[in-house]
Amino acid sequence: MSFKRIIFFIILLLSSNAFAEGVERIVVTGSRINVFDSPAITLVKPADYLIQKIILTNDTRDESSRTTELHKTVKGILKAANKKKTIAIAVGNEIIYPISLDNFQLELSLGSRADTSEAFLYIKTPIKSDSNVEELIEQLNDFIKKTKNYGRTEIFNAGELVLSIINPQKYRNELLKLIAEDLNKTIKIFGDNYVAEIQGISESLQWERESISELKLYLEYDFTLMSK
User: Global pTM?
Assistant: First the structure.
């Protein structure tokens, strides 16, 4: 492999890692692991955002008019969000991306009824260590309630409140330290004649929802004690 191709590969790798670190992932429910299979050591942290997904639906008969009315409504939502430092708008699915008045492209889909178009948005507010969750929920609900609809556009909540996390791997070292401390304590209980062989710590960090505003992070690790 030539030197130039090696440099290109390194730049590509660094760029993809930087992108991965900035990816915002949706966490819906705490269904990733069964309580009986849960690792002994987990780490509970506040999520980065509390989010309400909304559906915008419009049944104006003319398709062009439907699209125009939906776009006007979304622009109004973005303008309202710009006036509030605690509200941001995103699109996507399991991975979501922020949008603004300068860069948004609205993806429309056919509704459940004839001559109906739909779009989905995520209305989100940041979670801080000292945040009052009830106040955050009220902020989201109040923002959605005051949204101005254009034409025959209607807005509804789509499902329960969800959480999002940006770059969950940032907690990896903290979790590894907790696992190491627990292993050392276990070895001391059994005595100096034992060592631990651990598996799974090289795997990607996993997470599940712990509460209305918190996530439980973990590694699916296991270990075996062996005599020296």
Answer: 0.78
